[in-house]
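Exam revision sheet. Question 4 asks you to relate a sequence to its structure. Input first:
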Amino acid sequence: MNESTESANTLRCWVEVELNALRHNAAAILARTSAGLMAVVKANGYGHGTVHVVRAIGESVAMFGVANLKEAREVRSVCPERPVFILGPALPCEREAIVREGFIPAVSGAAEAAGYAAHGAVTLHLAIDTGMGRMGVWKDDALSTARELLVTPNVRLEGVCSHLSCADSDAALTAQQLADFRLLATEITSLAGRQLCLHVENSAATLAFPADAGDIVRCGLALYGIPPVPGFQQDFRPALSWKTRVVLVREMNAGRGVSYGRTFVTSRRTTVATLAVGYADGYPRELSGKGAEVVIAGKRCPVIGRVTMDQIMVDVTGIGPVAAGDDAELIGPEIPATELAEKAGTIPWDILTGIGQRVTRIAV
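Answer key, structure tokens:
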């Protein structure tokens, strides 16, 4: 992770993270539901910079969600007062540290829970597979597994969770998953004889099915200002702008090839600006020849030729004076992450989390 408070004036390629937008989005999520918020800050806070995100919203969340032990430690170092939930399975060699350091793991079965309990008392959540097929005990075996956990020494079953596979695309299937989870969670809570923390909804489900939120909603993309279902963008503010600089401006006559493979050839005299960003920084190579644009001096400029490891080239003919050192917007108010994702044939999650480590994150 590369984070800085230095001025953008000295940088070649950087991300600006608007802290007030993060706070606004957290409040918008909480206004949608009576549940608490688990802020999902895995993958460097969806590319925004974990430290910036955690500091901005730590006071308004119930807990943080991360992918692994390394991320859990990073969150703890910034916000020690909030619980940290590890969303994915741990390596066996990581279990002792997770128990010792008091993080909350999700487990998919009794044997996995016992693997944690071998290192001391552990608080954990049982993950149920209601159709995602990635982790969790299959729903038909959830009750028997819960019974085992409730009598396993050193195990405290604190919560029950599941994950939705199509909350942004298949309402009927999502409704069935939610119903299955609700039934099992009620039965497991009865077995435990005490209240458990129930959570199943991601960003899409929180927006589309707020009545089924449970005790906590696990929100990632919406928290960063990009609701994954239509009709809600007016309630959210994208928190990230990605910028780079012009490093070279050249005049090229007609018939000149641009970048590898000569996939673009100038058809007229063309002013070409080279920008200090490439696929090593996370600007997708799949955008080559796909109509991608950047904004320079308030004007959209097409990306021409193939995206290379460290640079892209754009056509700045006729937009006015352009010089080395000028800013260029890659993602921001004029070019949303969803636009880049669509042109690259991928999803906004991929675009945001793919922004590379050598791109500095600046809080604004």
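Marking note for examiners. Residues 1-5 have pLDDT under 50 and may be disordered.
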